[in-house]
Design goal:
This protein is an alpha+beta fold and 141 residues long. It contains 6 helices and 4 strands. It binds zinc ion. The site of zinc ion has 5 residues, from helix 3 and helix 4.
Length: 141
């Protein structure tokens, strides 16, 4: 995947993060994955994150700011050791930890996007999620 846009995150520089766009040959093969996973996909067994560059451009937020929240959310899935089918609880936990990691590593505008979209994405308020899942994040930030 030599020519794809590649970037790194201060949260964990060991992650290989790629943005695929329709101009890339590989886009077709990832399209199906994006259909089920949304804007981004991560393989939970390797430190690889693939982001849908086309969908990213269609969002209402600054691409780089949104990008770092998405990356943080995906890294959070790894830190939380999520496995198997994605579910609402795992998504809420990843958003919660993703926000906190963005804050820690000074992706403050990205953290704000996560906070603003939290209820919309997860169906519960950030406060309620902290109450329910906050203890899962201990030692991970
Ligand atoms: Zn997720």
């Amino acid at each position: 995947m030599g020519e794809l846009i590649q970037l790194t995150s201060k949260i964990d520089p060991k992650f290989n993060i790629f943005i695929v766009t329709p101009e890339d040959e590989e886009y077709e093969q990832f399209k199906e994955v994006f259909k089920t996973h949304g804007l981004a996909y991560t393989d939970l067994n390797s430190k690889i994150i693939i982001i849908d560059g086309e969908a990213l451009d269609r969002q209402k937020y600054d691409s780089m700011e949104l990008l770092h929240f998405i990356i943080s959310h995906e890294i959070a899935h790894h830190k939380l050791k999520h496995r198997g089918e994605y579910n609402k609880r795992q998504e809420a936990e990843a958003d919660l930890l993703g926000i906190k990691l963005c804050q820690k590593y000074n992706y403050n505008a990205s953290a704000k996007i996560g906070i603003k979209e939290f209820k919309n994405r997860n169906g519960i308020s950030l406060e309620a999620a902290e109450e329910l899942y906050g203890n899962r994040l201990l030692g991970l930030i």
